Structures are given as C-alpha cells and as structure tokens.
Amino acid sequence: MTASTDNQLRYPRVVIKLSGEALCGRDGGFGIDTATLQDTATQIRDVHRTGVQIGVVVGGGNIFRGLRGASEGMDRAQSDYMGMLATVINSLALQDALERTGVDTRVMTAMEIMDVAEPYIRRRAIRHLNRGYVVVFAAGTGNPYFSTDTAAALRAMEIRAAALFKATKVDGVYDRDPARHSEATLLEQVSYDRFLTDHLGVMDATAVSLCRDNGMPIRVFKMAPDNIRRVCLGENVGTTVTQ
Question: pLDDT (tens digit, 9 = 90+) per residue, 124-152?
Fold first, then answer.
C-alpha cells in the first residue's frame, strides 16, 4: 500500500480539508454552486474507487464565517457556533452529491443534530471508513475559537490518517503572498517550523502546530480536476509540509 507505482496507494487513508468557498464556483461569493459541488463529489468518488479511505472536512465560509461575525460586533462564541452550523449545511450537500455518484457516505457532527447526522464517535468513524464509506466530519471540533483547519488536523490524528490534504485556491505554499508579490516562489516542501515562523498562511497555525507535534504530513494543493487522485498516488503536486 505504500509503493508509489501508478496502481498502488501512497496514502491509504486521508482527511481532505475543503474550504466552503470552494463550493461557490469560480465567481466565489456565497452559497453553493451545484455544478461545482457535483464536480467536487466526482473527484472524491474517483479517488475513493482507487481504494483510498477518505474523511472530509468542509468549511462554512460560503454561508457564514465566525471571525467575520465577531469582527462586526457579534459575540465570538455565538458567531463560531453559527459557522459550525454552516459547515453542517455544506456537509449534507456534499453527502447528497456523493451519494448521487454512487458513493456511500456518512456525515458525523461534533454538535449533536441527530435528525440529520450521526454524532461523531471516533471508533464508529473508523469502522465506517473500513466498511468503505466516505465520512464527512461536520461542525468543526464542536468548540468556538477553533477553525475547521484545526478540526481537520484533529480528525486526521484521531482516525490515524496517513496525511492531511488541504485543497485550496492556490497551487500550494509560497514563500510570500503571490497575490501581492509577483516574484513569489512556490515551495515544493517546507518544514512545519518555517511555515509557522514565516507566517506562510494558507492554513491555520494551530492546525499546523498540531500536525507538527504528532508527525502528521500535510499536502497543500490547488483544487483542480484530478489533483486529489494524483496526490493520493504520490505525484508531486502542490507543497508538502513535514518535519
């Protein structure tokens, strides 16, 4: 399972972190673009068919972002809970899209919402993965002040994933902000410490620190057609963050 030939998996079990904005389509903004949602589900289905066990964490920024609510005067904890509920909406939408492609899916939430999803229980999540389900982890960690990046890192550790994948809008981690610096260079590999010391962005510092302390490799890459499968097969896509 660890060989890097085309028909063998480098990462037999992964957690994929998707931003809520990734479901908006090319124009960004708010809400869920059904064509983008279906394309995302198709990519995950294609990876799942290779035998990779997949956990997914979806953000909620396309519906409500807790930090923005707090910056506009809302109570931070209250706005974070609202953001967690936004991730549940996205998770249910992704579940529907995945099941329409023929992939059995379970949504597990850190907040108890029994009518629409299972409560998150680590051993049950692992059992679902072993049985061939894609598991979507919703509602973050269930606690305010923690991002969905941190939730993805935590779930990756708990289910003993081989790596954490961060699918984003850029090609990977740059040595400086590519939107502001035309000479920015894409880094193929970067250490956790440099990522944190140089404030390289793309991913929450708490999540990176958690991965560093537990030896969890991170792959940051652009959410583009076939990239998830390519990364699972060990191709050199995006940036690897390791020790």
Answer: 999 999 999 999 999 999 999 999 999 99
- Do 23 and 90 touch, CB atoms closer than 8 A? yes
- Token match 């090319």: residue? 26
Rounded to a whole number of angstroms, the distance between the first and last alpha carbons of the chain is 22
Q: Identify which has the larger pLDDT, 66 or 173.
A: 173
Domain regions of the chain by residue span: 13-242
Shortest CA distance to 137 belongs to which of 87, 70, 101?
87
Q: Output the pTM of the full model.
A: 0.91
CATH fit for domain 13-242, picks 3.30.420.360, 3.40.1160.10, 3.90.226.10, 3.40.50.150: 3.40.1160.10
Which residues are within 8 A (CB) of 209 and not within 5 positions of it... i.e. 6 or more apart?
A: 192, 196
